[in-house]
Amino acid sequence: MKNFIEKWKVILIINLFVVLLLLIVCLRQYIGINRFFILSFLGFFVPFFVYANILFVLYWALKRKIQFLISLSILVFGYFMNDSFIKFNDSNSNAFADFSVMSFNAHGFAGFFKIDNPNVKEDIVEYVLRENPDIVCFQEYNIEVSSMFKEYPYKYITPDSVDATPQAILSKYPIVSHGAFDFKNTINNAIYADVKIKQDTVRVYNIHLESFRVRPGSLKREVPTNIFNRMSSAFQKQLEQARLVKKHSLSVKYKTLICGDFNSTQYSNVYRILKGDLKDSFLEKGVGFGNTFDFRILPFRIDMILTDLEIVSHKNYNIEYSDHEPIKASFRVK
């Protein structure tokens, strides 16, 4: 009997700890956690916290214990406090739209460790052309492929004056003006272009925020303090970069679209800063987990499209041409 009580206490303590972690994530926008980087990282593990709490609900319910209300309460609270990481929207890709945008971190068109494909460069180009978006925002671009995108006569690529990994905006519509951000002490950067679509102009931001440079397979080989210090520094840079882009976008008189590789989830302050009053195409029209990054068993959505345009559809792709997967959304200007 004593052993049973001790086991029951241990399970309850673990349950309360997982509830506390999810509660912190739910309240992130109301408490000052910017200085405590480890708390910001909890947003990456929201799916795990949710699954764990569901298991605790089932466990206590099967035991006919009132403790099932502990996890059930935080799940209900979290659902109303935050947008769910899984969506069941009715996204009609055939509905009328004025234009579409694809965002894709193409990893330099060089493939990545999981694939051995000497033709990956050509395969990516062919795939994008087949999907036929009106505007493509590439992160980690390769300027060698520019000549392959003849269907996109208007292009803006990170200028040579910015010492960073190239980003690119390819468009079927005229680009009437453009510019670049020069993030300090990093190879990450962002660019923007004003695109003339029919009688309207839309400002398109293509951003690649600071990378954590952490791979699932390398975590066991690294000293924990080194990982923590690198991730803390990266998150601080992300916040600075996000504030810079957001401040810039608020001065724009056109409809705005911010897309790219955020390297942060929807539960981070980085995302909250960039989103502001904008809408998230996945949350509005997406289906499923919206996974965009290969990170073993956890669904990671770190590539986003945010806008104040009317969102018609959103599509996630499941392809292995990069460590990221592309996303595409369509919009109406008015």
TrEMBL record:
<dbReference type="Pfam" id="PF03372">
    <property type="entry name" value="Exo_endo_phos"/>
</dbReference>
<dbReference type="InterPro" id="IPR036691">
    <property type="entry name" value="Endo/exonu/phosph_ase_sf"/>
</dbReference>
<dbReference type="InterPro" id="IPR005135">
    <property type="entry name" value="Endo/exonuclease/phosphatase"/>
</dbReference>
<dbReference type="InterPro" id="IPR051547">
    <property type="entry name" value="TDP2-like"/>
</dbReference>
<feature type="transmembrane region" description="Helical">
    <location>
        <begin position="12"/>
        <end position="31"/>
    </location>
</feature>
<dbReference type="GO" id="GO:0046872">
    <property type="term" value="F:metal ion binding"/>
</dbReference>
<keyword id="KW-1133">Transmembrane helix</keyword>
<protein>
    <submittedName>
        <fullName>Endonuclease</fullName>
    </submittedName>
</protein>
<dbReference type="GO" id="GO:0016787">
    <property type="term" value="F:hydrolase activity"/>
</dbReference>
<keyword id="KW-0234">DNA repair</keyword>
<keyword id="KW-0255">Endonuclease</keyword>
<feature type="domain" description="Endonuclease/exonuclease/phosphatase">
    <location>
        <begin position="102"/>
        <end position="324"/>
    </location>
</feature>
<keyword id="KW-0812">Transmembrane</keyword>
<feature type="transmembrane region" description="Helical">
    <location>
        <begin position="37"/>
        <end position="61"/>
    </location>
</feature>
<dbReference type="GO" id="GO:0006281">
    <property type="term" value="P:DNA repair"/>
</dbReference>
<keyword id="KW-0227">DNA damage</keyword>
<keyword id="KW-0479">Metal-binding</keyword>
<keyword id="KW-0460">Magnesium</keyword>
<keyword id="KW-0378">Hydrolase</keyword>
<dbReference type="GO" id="GO:0004519">
    <property type="term" value="F:endonuclease activity"/>
</dbReference>
<keyword id="KW-0540">Nuclease</keyword>
<keyword id="KW-0472">Membrane</keyword>
